[in-house]
Amino acid sequence: MARVEPRDDADLDAARGSDFGAWQRELRVPQIRHVAFLTAGLYLLYALLEWRLAEAGTLSQWQMLRGLSIAAILISIGLLSFQPRYHAPMRALLLIAPVLAISGNLLLSLGDQDFVSYAPELYLALIWTFSVSGLTLGPATVSALISTSLILAFTALYGNDQTLPDLHLLWVGSAFAFGLLGAAQLERSSREMFLAQAQLQRQATFDDLTGLWNRRQLRDELAREIARSERNAAPLALIMLDIDHFKRVNDEHGHAAGDVLLRELAELLQHQVRGVDAVGRFGGEEFLIVLPDTRVDAARTVAEKLRATIESNAFSVGGTCTASFGVAEYRPSESLDAFIQRADAALYGAKRAGRNRVWVSGD
Fold it and tell me: Which GO terms describe its biological process (predicted)?
C-alpha cells in the first residue's frame, strides 16, 4: 500500500492521542531544563542561608545538606535534558525530586519549633510539581499525590500544635487544588494547540477529498526522490493518470457523485502500488504516482495493470470508469518540472490516441 494518511476517524483519533503525548513531552524539555537549573539555584541559596545558621545547631547543618542534595538532583535533571536518549530517566528524576524535597523537609522540621519557617516549601513544592516543573498532568499528579500523602501522614503522626495543623492542612489542600487546576488547564490548552497544528499540517500535506498526498507534498517527495536518484544513480519513474470523461460524470450525476468517484479511485490506487511508492492527487481528476528504483518498462507494466484494474472495477457511480496514463523515467540532471512535464505530455498523448491506454514519454 502506498504511503498515505489513514482516513478512518478512529485511526486518526488514536494517532493524534499517542502523538500528543510525545509532542507534549518533547515540547516541555526546554522548560524542564530552565526550571531545573533555576530551582537548583534557589536550593543552593537556601543551603547558603542554612550554612550561615549551621553554628546555631545540628538542624541547620542537615537542612544545608538537604538543600545541596536537592540542588544536585535538579542540576542532574538539567544536564540530562540536553541528551534525548536520557529524557526518560530525566523525567523519572523530575517526578521524585519534589517527593524527596518534601520528605526531607518533613523529617527534619515537622514537630520542631521552627516548622513555620519551613512549611511554605511544602506548599510551593506542590504547586511547583503541577505548574512549573514541566511534568505532564499524569506524572505530576502521581508525584503530587505521593507528596501530599507524605505530608498528611507525617502531620498526623508528628504534628504537635493544635492550631498549626488545621491551617497547615488548609494550605496543603489549597496548594494541591490550585496546582491541579492549573496543570489541567495547561494540558487542555496544549491539546487544543496540538490539534490545531495537526489540522494545519494535514491541510498542508493531504488532499481533503481523497486523503492522498496533495500536489505540494507530491512535489516535495519527488524532489527528495530525485536527489536520491542523483546521489545513488538509482532509476526513478513517474506515472500520471487522468480519469477519462470525468466532466461527463459531473454533468450526468452531479459533483457529489464525481467526488465519490475520486475517493473510490484513490482507495483503489493506494492498494495497488508498493509501500515505497507515493501516490497523490495532483489536481482535479489527475493523480501522480512516484516509483523509486523503477525503470520505465516496469513503470509501464504497473500503469497497464492499474489501467486494466480501473477498467474492470465496479464503481458506485456510473458503474465503470477508464483512465489514461502517462509514464516517464527520470533523466540525470533533469529538473523536477521538466520531469513532470514529460509525464504530463505522455498522458495527453494517451488521451489523443483514444484514451484508456498507457503512453510512455518518447513513444
Answer: cell adhesion involved in single-species biofilm formation; negative regulation of bacterial-type flagellum-dependent cell motility
